[in-house]
Protein: Glutamate dehydrogenase
Organism: Muiribacterium halophilum
Amino acid sequence: MAETLNPFENMKKQVDKVAGMMNMDENIVKILKSPMKSILVSLPINKDDGSIEVFEGFRVQYNDALGPCKGGIRFHQGVTIDEVRALAGWMTWKCAVSGLPYGGGKGGVIVDPSKLSEKELEKLARRYIYAISEEIGVEKDIPAPDVNTNPKMMGWMIDTYCRVKGTASIGVLTGKPINLGGSAGRVEATGRGVRFAAEVAAKNMGLDMNGARLIVQGFGNVGSIAARLMVKECGCKIVGASDVNGAIYDNNGLDIDKLIKLTETDGTIKNYDGGERISNEELIEKECEILVPAALENVITSKNAKNINTKLIVEGANGPTTPEADKILFEKGIWVVPDILANSGGVIVSYFEWVQNIDHYYWPEERVNNELKEKMFQNTQAVIDMAKKYNTDMRDGAYMIAMERVADGIKIRGIFP
Ligand code: NAD
């Protein structure tokens, strides 16, 4: 089949591939490829100029065989229903491979948030959560932040949900500000998880992280935190970084503290003093030992995979590599820690947050980070062992573990009615 950039089609291709390798029951595979519920909502808001604008939003609950659905909310102009379906599917596999008692879900709103005022953004966030308020709940479907949504927005959303439902159940959303029931360590969790997954993979492949050249595409929440920890704690040398405004490259190394400072002061690294300015496409092909794509989908395709010049790819973003590119990377001997494993630190700590909300008892950050480390180490090693057993790549290994767990859940429950 020709290469497609439709993320839902690509996710289903991956499911079919692994189902075939495992001789999985075709009837179960039909369920694994079908999102359980797709909700479409229209979201009118009063703009500051007195006009009304109507946005479109989605919530997809992909599968709940193993527990309530779980997954973030993306605000982006490029959101489509198929992207949300794919992201909800990936959440299903991510929670399963992580051993969490969750199914998968995801939400999205088609909007370029940079074009809204703070007040308008707040109205849109509140209207979206109101529109899906009957569909979510602590034991039903638990959203969280994703691209362009953040703890502050979770605060507005929690307030709206609690007012509308007449409840104080703050466990309905994770990724909240700390004083609203958020977990210590949640903001850094995904990037920290990327760093732990990278460490286990590097050890297994005999790659010394100390001095290893690192390139990070997408210097946002996940990318910047993964970069900082991999430089400060593992001794990597960051030689390239990018965001939506372009890329900066210097084989002698960039200053990680300056890059981080710029994200705090300017919200972009484009004003970094030094390095060579190149495009995001050029950056991804530069020579390095570790490459972390941490922006959006489809950045490594059959077109550029043969030019990728790294040893280890750790997928901070969801869906950065197409199935066709996977094949090329595997033939080149490049290890890829797949998204559903590499960026699972976020949902793991979201799970800790949910547990703390239900218990009304809060953990110190050290406990959060230690338990995250333990899970990431165990899960990454299990995936590597599975991939070795079947002589295949880590993506297949991760899907094998995840799909088997979800399929088992479906079989044990049976089909209603
Ligand atoms: P973010 O909005 O904080 O950061 C995204 C970064 O990517 C920004 O620096 C942005 O400028 C950059 N970017 C956007 N378009 C780009 C392009 N075309 N080329 C290069 N850079 C571009 O978002 P985030 O939360 O860090 O999420 C990044 C990825 O990680 C997404 O795929 C998201 O689904 C995934 N993810 C995030 C979390 C989380 O906890 N935040 C958890 C799991 C997975």
